[in-house]
Amino acid sequence: MPSSSSSVTVVSKCTVYPNQKSTIKSLKLSVSDLPMLSCHYIQKGVLFNSPPYSINDLVNSLKQSLSVALTHFPALAGRFETDSDGYVHILCNDAGADFIQAKAKHLTVDGVLPPNCDVPHCFKEFFTFDRTISYSGHHKPLAAVQVTELADGVFIGCTVNHSVTDGTSFWHFFNTFAEINRGAMKISKSPDLSRDTVFNSSAVLRVPEGGPKITFSGNEPLRERIFHFTRESILKLKFRANNNAARNGFSESAEIFGKARNDTWNLAPRDNNGSAKAPTEISSFQSLSAQLWRSVTRVRSLDRSKPTTFRMAVNCRHRLEPKMDSHYFGNAIQSIPTIATVGDLLSHDLRWGADLLHKNVVAHDSDTVHRGVEDWESAPRLFPLGNFDGASMTMGSSPRFPMYNNDFGWGMPLAVRSGRANKFDGKISAFPGREGNGSVDLEVVLAPETMAGLECDEEFMQYVTVV
């Protein structure tokens, strides 16, 4: 196990400005952006083998590429401003993003990717704006990049204000940054910077004096592990969740061993008119989430009458009718809580919990999105992130995000890792597996005793593959 103190050394720090002035003056924060003002900045990054040129050449290239990327994403070079009416705007004033060059040459790629171990602490030092909440964007940059040189690799960490981006927009920016660095003269997907959506609102969020505070302590002892699930393991889970559900004609042999198609990861099927139909089959991701919910709840040894909550963040872009642009830049997410008593969740089989998650996700249609917006407008509030009752779990990120598309010019990443941001007992983040093809990595953050129990939970661990 690598040392917990990685002693990353900052070599240099500067501000990178867009290479062209922004033509957009300001963007108003939406109903989906504003609740994130009390959340930490998003911290996600990618690990590579060393590039086939010097670290100085890489740093210069990354600075130039970031400058071009910020021109396409002018919000990330701006700052927040709250106007006299209480509305928060992103001033697209070309104030720039931070760029940090750092080194930790005593660390190796193999050393920071130990098999079957907790995620080493060093990754927390590969990001800047640690423990910075998004409201700080009033006086801090809204984005930053840190490149950290290892003995035989580099880590490129990206930190972005969570009131400016959700995961979809974050990876759109990060992918574009990589695309420019590997030589693209024209970016493949331009962001939609419009604000004429259902999330645009006249409601005002009243922020407490002195600004909002993070809603969880951030100081409790935690363990963090990456659990890898192959396509085959997940399809076995999916079969278990759908078993005895002849309504969908699901066949284990056909699905696991016959077809090579990728799972649709909750994309709704279409009828002959192209309208979305409610899928009847419990998806791979719902099956995996239900198994984790069951196993963590079991090892927490809670009272059987206690309610337990599994919260999932969902992308609303494709759920609305008419649909939002898939490249809408900003937050377009809502949170779906699924609640069951501990006794009910554990006394039934996997199918029962998976079906609860499935029905909630399927029911989150355009009308539900609108009701969520109206509910927030009736009582504007910050998003309460955390595990307040000791019985909750929160799933973030998505195995559909194109994390391994971040090829900066010398190959795909070896691994995706995150910083300290927004982590508490029960916070889960889903990443695609590096091999693709429907594999998934779950970044699981738990209290130490709960993690120890999960590692001994045979129902869960039988699906985990050591990479």
Main attributes of the structure:
467 residues; 6-stranded mixed sheet; 11 helices; 21% strand; globular; disordered N terminus
Structural write-up:
This protein has helices spanning 55-72, 109-112, 167-181, 231-242, 252-258, 284-299, 342-347, 350-363, 366-378, 448-455, 458-461, and strands at 9-16, 26-28, 42-49, 79-82, 88-91, 97-104, 143-150, 153-160, 223-229, 307-315, 333-341, 392-397, 415-418, 427-432, 440-446. Helix 1 crosses helix 3, helix 4 (231-242) runs antiparallel to helix 5 (252-258) and helix 6 (284-299) packs across helix 8 (350-363). It is α+β, with helices and mostly antiparallel strands. Helices cover 25% and strands 21% of the residues. The protein is globular. A 6-stranded mixed β-sheet has the order 1-6-7-8-3-13. A 6-stranded mixed β-sheet has the order 9-15-14-12-10-11. A 3-stranded antiparallel β-sheet has the order 2-5-4, with no helix packed on it.
Give me the secondary-structure topology.
Elements: E1 9-16, E2 26-28, E3 42-49, H1 55-72, E4 79-82, E5 88-91, E6 97-104, H2 109-112, E7 143-150, E8 153-160, H3 167-181, E9 223-229, H4 231-242, H5 252-258, H6 284-299, E10 307-315, E11 333-341, H7 342-347, H8 350-363, H9 366-378, E12 392-397, E13 415-418, E14 427-432, E15 440-446, H10 448-455, H11 458-461
Parallel strand pairs: 6-7, 10-12, 12-14
Antiparallel strand pairs: 1-6, 2-5, 3-8, 3-13, 4-5, 7-8, 9-15, 10-11, 14-15
Helix pairs in contact: 1-3, 4-5, 4-6, 6-8
